[in-house]
Amino acid sequence: MVRIFKALNGSINTDVSDYEVNRYKNMEGVLPPIPIYKSSMSVVVPREAADFVIVNPRVKKLLSYLRKTWIPDESFWTTVSGSPALLPVPGAIRVRDILWLRKHFKLRPPDVNTVDSIGTSYIGRYQVWGWQKDCYGKIKDFSCVFGVEDIEEIMTRPELIAHKLYLEFEPAAFMCMFKEIRQRAASPDAVKFSAKSYSEMPTVELLKGKTITQLTHPHWLIRDSFYNPEQEEIDRAVL
User: Could you tell me the pTM of the whole model?
Assistant: First the structure.
């Protein structure tokens, strides 16, 4: 985990999505303090960014604004870290560049997501929505509660958290996962783990100064965590 955090190089890792109009709720027509984006509730935030956020007055204004919108906890982090020219949070990148790439380039998202080939720009958590792929546990609140048969794939994923597992539902799934993680940590091969692929994530490279057209893996940006494979417009001949 420490090697992964070092590879992130101070960048904020958060999901990036367009903000849906219906989420404005009572605040529709009221100008927000900064442009609003949709994200996930899970995020990886460096200490410098956290220290900045808790004392910044514009962030406090944003919180007051979002409290009157729908599902504000899914709007906060990417909004805070998505407009560095307006809110210079350490580790922030310009989110509108990512949305621009998705709009104008129909790249094919990766078929593989592992620690050696991340294949995504968001590692805050791994979650499967009911419309995305098979769930071998059960669906609750539109999201997969992972079961025993999901664990094999989960253990190959690059994300830091798996959401969600319930001890009251197929508890063997949780225990098997816990056992495997402990065994990996104690294994002599643990020292061989490489976080190189994490350092090649688009958000990390953007923070280092690369432009959106200079990225090593621009196609890792194509999907957000809410993607629907049936609605994707992809040029299958393009990587």
Answer: 0.89
